[in-house]
């Protein structure tokens, strides 16, 4: 006999759950933007962002909660993300894509996400970041 609790606990955990929920997603995003702000390696993509990263932090946090399979905070505020269109004002070539991905990989490591999860997420981030490229080079 299975009851509702069995079914609830038997579902495949979402990436959001594996990361550890909202507090951990926030930690990841804060580390990501701290690194972008601090590290010379990421100066190229830092320069594309506004002087204050406060708004960027909130938007990426809201977006990632839903993207990882958790609550859809971004969509409930802004509607469909139209992510590629929203990135068109910024020149994104392979170099910017790779800076973004290295910054995210570094942040995931710094907050102590387990290696197999980091690898899986990096693969998904690559797909999205690559799709955002809008310039050659
Ligand atoms: C490929 C390299 C990328 C670069 C150079 C880049 C750069 C930027 C910049 C400059 C902004 C504007 C920040 C602001 O208005 O405060 C932005 C916004 C945003 N980015 Fe990216 N991004 C990249 C990849 C990604 C990826 C892979 C994701 C998701 C997994 C993402 C999600 C977002 C979101 C949700 C916003 C907020 C959009 C809005 O509502 O205005 N970005 N990005």
From TrEMBL:
UniProt KW Transcription regulation keyword: no
Keyword terms, alphabetized: Heme, Iron, Metal-binding, Transport
Gene Ontology molecular function: any one: heme binding
UniProt superkingdom: Bacteria
Obligatory cofactor(s): heme
InterPro entries (alphabetical): GlbO/GLB3-like (IPR044203), Globin-like_sf (IPR009050), Globin/Proto (IPR012292), Globin_bac-like_CS (IPR019795), Hemoglobin_trunc (IPR001486)
Pfam families assigned to the protein according to its UniProt record, in alphabetical order: Bac_globin
Keyword check for Disulfide bond: no
CDD domains linked: TrHb2_PhHbO-like_O
Family assignment from sequence similarity: Belongs to the truncated hemoglobin family. Group II subfamily.
Protein name, per record: Hemoglobin
Organism of provenance: Paraburkholderia susongensis
């Amino acid at each position: 006999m299975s009851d509702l609790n069995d079914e609830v606990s038997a579902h495949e955990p979402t990436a959001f759950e594996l990361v550890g929920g909202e507090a951990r997603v926030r930690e990841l995003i804060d580390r990501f933007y701290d690194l972008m702000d601090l590290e010379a390696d990421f100066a190229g993509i830092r320069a594309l962002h506004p002087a204050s990263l406060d708004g960027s932090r909130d938007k990426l946090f809201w977006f990632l909660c839903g993207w990882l399979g958790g609550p859809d905070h971004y969509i409930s505020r802004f509607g469909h993300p139209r992510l590629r269109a929203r990135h068109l004002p910024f020149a994104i070539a392979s170099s910017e894509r790779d800076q973004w991905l290295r910054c995210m990989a570094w942040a995931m490591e710094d907050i102590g996400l387990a290696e197999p999860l980091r690898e899986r997420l990096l693969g998904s981030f690559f797909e999205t970041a690559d799709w955002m490229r809008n310039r050659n080079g």
